[in-house]
Amino acid sequence: MKKIFFFITLMLCALTITMQAQTKEITLEKIWKSGTFYPSSVPGFATMPNGDYYTVKNGFAIMKYSFETGKEVGTIMNMSDLSTASGGKLSLDKMSQYRFDKSETKILFASDMESIYRRSTCAYYYVYDLKNGKVHFISPDQKVSFASFSADGNRVAYVRDYNIFYYDLLTEKEVQVTFDGRENAILNGFADWVHEEELDMSKCFWWSPDGNKMVYLRFDESRVKEFSMTMWGQLYPETFVYKYPKAGEDNSIVTIHLYDVAQNSSREITLDDDTDCYYPRICWLSNSTEFIVLKLNRLQNQLDFFRYNTLTHKTDIVFTDKNDAWLDVTHNYYFLEDNKSVILTSERDGFNHIYKVEFNGTITQLTKGEFEVQDIASVDMKKQRIYYLSNEANVLNKDLYVIDFKGGKKKMLSDGTGWNEPTFTTNSHFYLNNYSNANTPSVYAVYDNTGKKLYTLEDNERYRNVMKDYGFVDRELFSFTTDAGVQLNGWMLKPANFDATKKYPVLMYCYGGPGSQEVFNAYTRVLDYAWYQMLAQKGYMVVCVDGRGTAGRGDAFKKVIYKQMGKYEAIDQIATAHYLQSLPYVDKDRIGIWGWSFGGYLSSLSMFTGDGTFKMAMSVAPVTNWRYYDNIYTERFLQKPQDNPSGYDDNSPCTHAAEMNGKYLLVHGTGDDNVHFQNSMDLVTKLNVAEKQYEQFFYPNKNHFIYGGNTRYQLYTKLTNFLLENL
């Protein structure tokens, strides 16, 4: 009997060793150089404007497919069409983006696209007419931004040198709309830096539905203070200068203008008391004679919906939303075809829900309960249905629902097992859904609007096999209650071949910015996740917990941080470390924390105020003093520094630099236009004064994302080595 037992034990050991030998090693080279851990997607996919078809562009053709069957139904155009029409000047494989006009008879192509800031780009644009095979060269000698068809498809508007132009496809002539555009001074139709970054706006002109008018914003940056960055690499380094309003400082003066195509003239539109506010959205009504201007006050806790009539030139307020803390401006504003009502989301009852607002003052709440509507995916105007995403079934999930305009006939269309990101057709008949969960990479499948699955376009079987080959361990979702009685949600990776009788070091990852979410039942941040799996192979646990201030749990949980941003976020990260220290398999003396951007701020603050809880911290591109950050973001949560100085200073890592206790790595790009390098320089000064020892590493000319060439590989080598040496 003993011999049999010994033989079985020996075989099990041999099997374990064999399995370990078969598991491939995850390396930084494979993560950041070879592309081993990139999952597949559906490249070149685009829905068509008028209905039930989608297109896929490859290097040789644009093919048309049926949403209902998934079968190819024709070729829109092939490479030779564009080449022949352009006299050999253009090649389809070099067109980076394309979109149809509403009639689907013209295609607007972009090539040689380059980024300006986070959302703005410039490119060369071309229109290909499918009816006559003609190519129109839009501003052929200079790149332009935001090229857009008018509703009738006869004109293409764009911004060049901060002025608005349009190209008339019928007359083949360019028309200049504005004339005073100038860099760092006057921007027409082009959002300034802070509006683009914090209000999700870059293109700031909007065609009327009939194509006869255009409303646009003009940004006068003259009074906004400049920020300069040295760009290294030349004998005499250059200086990049741009307008950046820090907390409490002056903004651009923004004015609204209405352009009439027939008269070739503009008029300024004035709303009452508009000297210090924001206009984050402008939406035309379907009648083409009225549009809605969303006006947000400087403190961002009141949002007024102004209606402007282009015939009478009268304005009135049709709806006002308010909040005791702050309001989040979204893109969930669906103005109905009756020209007197809108479907929108609001947090007015403490959770984000859908409302139907009529301009006569009637407000109907369509969803209700202690859950959050995360987004409106589509609105079917004809059948009066709203397709939306919410976490009603599980706070960590995103599920697709449908409800009617009266708040009835609600139905879940997804299966309640993970995270769904649907892209609907314009008529809401079909959608392409990107589904994942904590341990399943994206599956792309097409559904009809009843939630019936029709076919799968990509199931990422290849990537799932990669996960298996490299021994990926499951991400475990968990929750715990802090000593303060707050329940927090998290995820953790345990080391490969986890043994509960052993003790393991832990690396905590945090972001924690207001309204963000890092803990959910989805497969996200795939390359960082591969890095975490590499650390698990090396015997580390990796943990992430969303503290107070994050999304998905209502206003009370999210907005407790108001006027004291950083305080509760750091308390909750420290509480997470204390919880982990209570687990029998955690080495309580070997807990580290890291983060990027707001996460860099939070990892620094948590370590500095954690009284030795964290053995080490790594901070990438951190804010270290909110006085240095832009005013729209910072004032939303802290008000102006003139009115709330303690909110800025009490929770600054610079304030607590002398309390640093542990190993600390600080990383920043010197060309960061978002979180300025100034933040790290001032923190370094404070650490030096406090006689603290730390490591710092800076990337010349790199922006907030620190990428390009082998930069990410080099960065993660630095992070990995620091972690292995100090945790």
Descriptive overview:
The structure is a single chain. This protein has 727 residues and is an alpha+beta fold. Among the domains are: 24-38 and 465-726, Alpha/Beta hydrolase fold, catalytic domain (Rossmann fold), CATH 3.40.50.1820; 371-459. Helices cover 18% and strands 37% of the residues. The strands form ten sheets. It has an eight-stranded mixed β-sheet, sandwiched between helices. Strands 13, 14, 15, 18 and 19 form a five-stranded antiparallel β-sheet that branches. Helix 8 (567-581) crosses helix 9. It is globular, with a radius of gyration of 27 Å. Mean pLDDT is 95; it is low at 1-21.
**Biggest β-sheet description:** 8 strands, mixed
Uncertain runs are: 1-21
CATH A-level architecture of one domain = 3-Layer(aba) Sandwich
Estimate percent helicity.
10-25%
CATH class of one domain reads: Alpha Beta
Shape: globular
